[in-house]
Amino acid sequence: MEDVKKIRCPFCNKEFIPPTIYPLQNFHYDGRSATYPLKDTPSKLMTEEGFFPSKIIIVNWITFCPECGFELKFIKEIVNKIKKTHINLENPNISYEKEEFKKPFKDYSDYFRDVEFILKEDISYDLIKDTLKSLEKIYLNSDDFKFLIKIIAYLEDYYNEIKGINNKYMPEKIKELNFPEELEDSLINCNALRNNIVHKNHEMTIEEKELIHNTYCQIILYFIKSTIIPIVDKIHNQFKFINKKNILEEAGLIISPFLNKLFRDDKDHYNRLDKIFLSLTEDFGLKT
Ligand SMILES: [Zn+2]
Most buried residue among 34, 49, 124, 242 by CB atoms closer than 10 A? Predict the structure, then answer.
């Protein structure tokens, strides 16, 4: 990856990444001769060499200094006179050869394309699949109660893997995992619900069923965020002038089809996740 290259304004010396560098046409060129724009008269193009100058800039690259507004121009297309005969305005018999120049500096959208490229290399379907550690399958063939039991069992396994097996109570274990507050509360509530059903023969309400499904989505999002945010931070560190929100949104767009694939058999959770995920991209970098 090449380095970020800034332009220095010749007027105020400010160094900047141009928001945009766009082509601006100076002359129309039909492949043989240049025609004058209305504002220019033929006399304006006269040089000591004759009526037709040896070089005409057909198209410029244009950008502006964000500090002082100075207009910076670079050549994009130039025509060089290659044959000069008698001077005759009606039938000049002069031909020009076109030469083209690439954008001299990358602008914001060029760098953003680099960012998209790195994101697509770094965020793969396999990465998201590994991140979820088969969590995407636990809803299948389960009623709500079985689903709840599986979530708690998954949590227990996850805890054991990180902290080791011990006899602590589940709420304590949940707290030790340092989840975001909202997820921690949901998991503690899910655990209490599980105990109420198992020990007190409690009948699940609609709100409690909703709690289970939402908690499940929250866990998945938490794992995805934990994997994605370091990637976004790394890229943002390299391209500090790119808005982090835009990088997060782009990451969200890459992940969305992966979620679709992983939750193919579970449209309900896919729809919930996708909605939450896209609405979270704006702030998920700030929360973790
Ligand atoms: Zn300037």
Answer: 34
